[in-house]
């Protein structure tokens, strides 16, 4: 991680920075993004952001067990 933020559920800036740095170092690498649970949400959000310039090396993505309504989950979770 490069930020001091502990909760990244709705943020994709961290992912973008990591991918950008990786592609700068290895420009010929093809990437498939994989996210599980919250990571799946971040990957899907990142790929769906309309004003985001993404590296052209991203060939696809896989989202596994992603939640679809984080607000509802938090509201109904019993601690």
List keywords for this structure.
AB_hydrolase_fold, 2 strands, hydrolase, 3 helices, elongated, acetylesterase activity, single chain, two-stranded parallel ribbon, 16% strand, monoacylglycerol lipase activity, 79 residues, alpha+beta
Task: Give structural notes.
- The protein is α+β, with helices and mostly antiparallel strands.
- It has one domain (13-76).
- Helix content is 39%, strand content 16%.
- It contains three helices and two strands.
- It has helices at 13-25, 38-48, 70-76, and strands at residues 31-36, 58-64.
- It has a two-stranded parallel ribbon.
- Helix 2 (38-48) links the parallel strand 1 (31-36) and strand 2.
- The longest helix is centred in the N-terminal third of the chain and has 13 residues, at 13-25.
- The two termini are 28 Å apart.
Q: Could you say how many structural domains there are in total?
A: 1
Query: Quick one: biggest sheet?
Result: 2 strands, parallel
Poorly predicted runs of 5 or more residues: none
- The helix count comes to 3
Overall pLDDT metric: 85
Structure classification? alpha+beta
Quantity of strands, as a count: 2
| Strand arrangement, major sheet | 1-2
The rounded Rg comes to 14 Å
CA distance, first residue to last residue: 28 Å
Percent strand equals 15-25%
What is the share of helical residues? 25-40%
- H/E element order: HEHEH
Overall body shape: elongated
Protein name: Abhydrolase domain-containing protein 2
Family: Belongs to the AB hydrolase superfamily. AB hydrolase 4 family.
InterPro entries: AB_hydrolase_4_sf, AB_hydrolase_fold
Keywords: Hydrolase
């Amino acid at each position: 991680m490069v930020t001091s933020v502990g909760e990244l559920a709705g943020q994709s800036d961290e992912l973008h920075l990591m991918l950008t740095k990786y592609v700068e170092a290895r420009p010929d690498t093809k990437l498939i993004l994989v996210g599980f649970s919250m990571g799946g949400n971040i990957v899907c959000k990142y790929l769906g952001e309309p004003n985001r310039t993404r590296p052209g090396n991203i060939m696809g993505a896989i989202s596994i067990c992603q939640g679809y309504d984080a607000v509802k989950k938090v509201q109904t979770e019993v601690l």
